[in-house]
């Protein structure tokens, strides 16, 4: 048995280059899974514990201005812990300061350094604000003319993503929450926003009560924690990364298994006579198979463990991205036992199964059949003859390359997989990289105002608003019901003045969409892509406990992705509101009073730009993966062709051909085929990319539009051919060496 082991291992080591590629593919598979997963598992557990310990709210809401609302609030306190949150926004020297009193019952601050304010004149701020502004605990921060001592830094569990309620996303360098004493808070005059935070008391079935609250018109702007960006973006990011890690693992594992299948199928065909001899000498199928199976286990296990270690080291990149994006104190790298088992066992177990599936049927053949391999070649003569007739129709220059490659179906399938995978990853990387620019363009097109001024309650219109350089709007949170889904989707509905020009909706030809005589609604391109909504569809909307139906009259190329647009008079009619009321206005001048919230177009642009970082990082990641996988697979294709052509190379050498000519005849034959495969894979790659982006958008709630460009449709082919050329050049020395090994046995 020891002699058998030594002999088969010696034959396996002859395919050293192939084995190295197998090891690297398994390592890459495990690496990409653990690279992402190390930043997820422990953080998901710690995030749940953090939210529970700091008593993160389960939902928030505002009250309507009716006596009944106050009575219902008191009733609600029997089931829920409720705390009013008051926030004032002060803009000082380009900084947005969100002032609030220290929470006592819900959303308890997590102290990072120092202490929370104990006396008047003391404040606590976010730690990122301190770091990025080169301040320390003990320094002064001026709000108006008053200087306040920073006594500590803290995180807020309901502001894990810096998106204050009703505000654009903020930058930590230019904005912070400020905790202060009630006396200091009352002394500051600024725009104020009030709402209530709530969490179910122990033993209360929250789900039933929450549905009743959503339908109650006395509780307005109702929002559950999972729908609030500030509360849920970190959790959604971790969930999205989990799907990404699993996708990497499954796709790359399938590629790995296919390559192992090719390796052993080729090995068995090359050494079937030797295997026939082993069986004739009395070795059993199990003994022979176990040697090859152990080799596969060792190779795949070593690659998986190497990927585990490399993934742990590389995961620090994702951890730093999370730290820079979200306020959370307990970041820690680590994987759960389930993830560890999945990341290690799936590649290894799959390799074992695919190896057995390849070896076992082969080992059932009789020794005489293995010692006489001629019959298997005869079986393929009909197929080869048909292919030769097909190839004869091609131009003469392409006949030889296609005759060579069509003899090797495994290499052919591997080439197609390599091209499709690389093309998809490159197109996806471009779409991810450009998605932020596309969103910025769509949300700034048609915008001609400088200030977006909104109010917490409805305001009566002033006369001749358009003549004063203003344009009114009415914003209303709604729930959308579609025929394709049984669940509702929270959206915003925006009623626009029909005679204003400070914001104009545009169609796909960049022509203005007229709202004046419109009876229905306009939906943005995002809803058309994600939910399949088309012009002419009937949509059902729900506001509190009332519903109304509207037809889709147009699809707009600009606007916010989660907002439905209509004429303001139409929305007033649907909501049964008094005529001539608005919730905000657009203006070229800042005409707001202290009770209004103001968002400048520059603030909006900055918020959109700040959300671009993660998509661009994902784009770079996809490009790197595409390059590495493409290079490995192309190398493997050329290696297969090289090893299968060794005998032909020696024959051509004896016939007087030079190594360069031999390489051109037998090795450099895949270039035309790669071009054909690329042209065939382009449309499937675009379709796959669109579907992946759509699924990610639906899962995360952040719309990622698809976009491409003519040069991007050419770039993947250029990269593929460049990698192919580099690999072919690297094999030229091997061709020279192989063709020099002349022997009378080759004739």
Automatic annotation (TrEMBL):
<dbReference type="InterPro" id="IPR038766">
    <property type="entry name" value="Membrane_comp_ABC_pdt"/>
</dbReference>
<feature type="transmembrane region" description="Helical">
    <location>
        <begin position="709"/>
        <end position="731"/>
    </location>
</feature>
<feature type="transmembrane region" description="Helical">
    <location>
        <begin position="334"/>
        <end position="360"/>
    </location>
</feature>
<feature type="transmembrane region" description="Helical">
    <location>
        <begin position="624"/>
        <end position="644"/>
    </location>
</feature>
<dbReference type="InterPro" id="IPR003838">
    <property type="entry name" value="ABC3_permease_C"/>
</dbReference>
<protein>
    <recommendedName>
        <fullName>ABC3 transporter permease C-terminal domain-containing protein</fullName>
    </recommendedName>
</protein>
<feature type="transmembrane region" description="Helical">
    <location>
        <begin position="291"/>
        <end position="314"/>
    </location>
</feature>
<feature type="transmembrane region" description="Helical">
    <location>
        <begin position="20"/>
        <end position="40"/>
    </location>
</feature>
<feature type="domain" description="ABC3 transporter permease C-terminal">
    <location>
        <begin position="624"/>
        <end position="737"/>
    </location>
</feature>
<feature type="domain" description="ABC3 transporter permease C-terminal">
    <location>
        <begin position="247"/>
        <end position="367"/>
    </location>
</feature>
<keyword id="KW-1133">Transmembrane helix</keyword>
<keyword id="KW-1003">Cell membrane</keyword>
<dbReference type="GO" id="GO:0005886">
    <property type="term" value="C:plasma membrane"/>
</dbReference>
<feature type="transmembrane region" description="Helical">
    <location>
        <begin position="409"/>
        <end position="433"/>
    </location>
</feature>
<keyword id="KW-0812">Transmembrane</keyword>
<keyword id="KW-0472">Membrane</keyword>
<dbReference type="Pfam" id="PF02687">
    <property type="entry name" value="FtsX"/>
</dbReference>
<feature type="transmembrane region" description="Helical">
    <location>
        <begin position="665"/>
        <end position="689"/>
    </location>
</feature>
<feature type="transmembrane region" description="Helical">
    <location>
        <begin position="244"/>
        <end position="264"/>
    </location>
</feature>
